[in-house]
Amino acid sequence: MWCGWPSSGQQQTGVPSDRRGGAGQLDASEDARAVIAAVRPNEPHEVERLVRFRMERQKLLTRSSHPLELWAVIEESALRRPVGGKEAMAAQINQLIQASALPNVTVQVMPNAKGAHMAMAGTFALLDFEPTTPSVVHVDSIAGNVYLEKERDVRKFTQTFDMVRAAGPDPEETPGILENLAKEMQQP
User: Fold this and answer.
1) What is the pLDDT of residues 40-80, one digit of tens each?
2) Which of 16, 126, 136, 185 could lock 12 by a disulfide, CB 3.0 to 4.6 Å apart?
């Protein structure tokens, strides 16, 4: 369960190839439903509960008082994976374009042409809370969620995320990259 995620402070998310909407904060509902249903095909009630939970969590990005800060690096390959059909994919790309325009959200799309990078081992999130609360790393896997709190672990993931961000394109290029992907998807 994702209940331990910050409601204030800052969150930075490193997202390798398996997610299109960061850690859920950037999901369009159609895309979230399709992705969650793919990994939980026999649990329709759980799928809907998780979609609602993600949509509620997104409100942290747009609240008027201390909106959550998010930096997501999303693999181009995740945006090209045909999950949920063209409508879900188009909704997701539109959601990312809108979110990247928010002052507290930074989105980078890691191009396939960049090849290998340090975060290819799996999805993780760096959770930074208030200044007096230590940062935590959330590692997502099919076996469950793992939270790492040791300073050396947090430092290793922070360095990895910094290297991935530096290897990616300038965040100002994101809307253009996403618009080009959207145009490509509209082609037969």
Assistant:
1) 889 999 999 999 988 998 888 899 988 888 888 888 888 88
2) 126
